[in-house]
Amino acid sequence: MYENIKFEVNEGIGTVTINRPKAMNALNMDVLSELFDVFTKIECDDEVKAVIVTGEGKAFVAGADIAQMHQLDPIGGRKMMMMGHKVMNLIESIEKPVIAAVNGFALGGGCELAMACDIRIASEKAKFGQPEVGLGIIPGFGGTQRLPRLVGKGMAKYLIMSAEMIGAEEAYRIGLCEKVAAPEDLIAEAEKLAKTIASKAPIAVGTAKTAINNGYDMDMKSASKFEIETFTAAFSSEDKTEGMGAFLEKRAPEFKNR
């Protein structure tokens, strides 16, 4: 179905694999279009409860496709950046949790793809970086905005302005990833987390993601009001009745929306 990505669903867990290993899984317009298509479908697919994003071979995504970008004029470059933003914003905004299993190089657009995901688990061999200033440009798929929100303004400036590449342990230390795993355990760890999240009430999980994302940039008073409204929405669901009832009856919940 797709030429540059692989997509499969197993026990409610969807796995999206960037599949251009000869190009280190670099993001070109075709890959971006396919990612947008698959995540649009995932958003509406009740079978998929959680998503894992990873890369084929030695790289997660080694960046945007420089060979393609080199040929673009400013109009073409803007079009590509706008498409990149559409993809990253979609991944960030869908209510289903998205886990990045960062298996290798996550540079430039690859680092930006990982940051658009909700949670990042990195292989011990993973490398993160935003090397764009060495190419005469800046991050263009959201990197100048998501990176400071994850690691702080000063650290983001350091990484972007120096174009320094860092390893998994340093990424974990500064908050760029949430967990580090042995390379051979990476996908298993991502699947374990995905299954744990998928076992919870899907409406509650999606509502929590929305509350965190939308409230993060609000002032505290507005964010608190938003939390009350999203809490009320979850409180009104059948999942709330089942979840609380199961707790009181000391049994595993059976969420109808799972």
What keyword list fits this structure?
258 residues; alpha/beta; six-stranded mixed β-sheet; four-stranded mixed β-sheet; globular
What would a concise description of this structure say?
The protein has 258 residues and is of the alpha/beta class. The chain has helices at 29-44, 66-70, 74-93, 109-116, 143-151, 153-162, 168-174, 186-198, 202-215, 220-235, 238-248; strands at residues 5-10, 13-18, 50-55, 59-61, 98-102, 105-107, 119-123, 127-129, 166-167, 179-181. The strands form 2 sheets. Strands 1-2-3-5-7-10 form a 6-stranded mixed β-sheet, with helices on both faces.
Shape: globular
How many DSSP E strands? 10
Low-confidence stretches: none
- What Rg, in angstroms, do the CA atoms define? 19 Å
The ordered H/E elements are: EEHEEHHEEHEEHHEHEHHHH
Strand order of the largest sheet: 1-2-3-5-7-10
CA distance, first residue to last residue: 26 Å
Helix content: 40-55%
Characterise the protein shown here.
The chain has 258 residues and is an alpha/beta fold. 50% of the residues lie in helices and 16% in strands. It has helices spanning 29-44, 66-70, 74-93, 109-116, 143-151, 153-162, 168-174, 186-198, 202-215, 220-235, 238-248, and strands spanning 5-10, 13-18, 50-55, 59-61, 98-102, 105-107, 119-123, 127-129, 166-167, 179-181. It has a six-stranded mixed sheet with strand order 1-2-3-5-7-10, sandwiched between helices. The protein has a four-stranded mixed sheet with strand order 4-6-8-9. α1 links the parallel β2 and β3 (50-55). α1 (29-44) runs parallel beside α3 (74-93), α5 crosses α6 and α9 runs antiparallel to α10 (220-235). The longest helix is centred in the N-terminal third of the chain and has 20 residues, at 74-93.
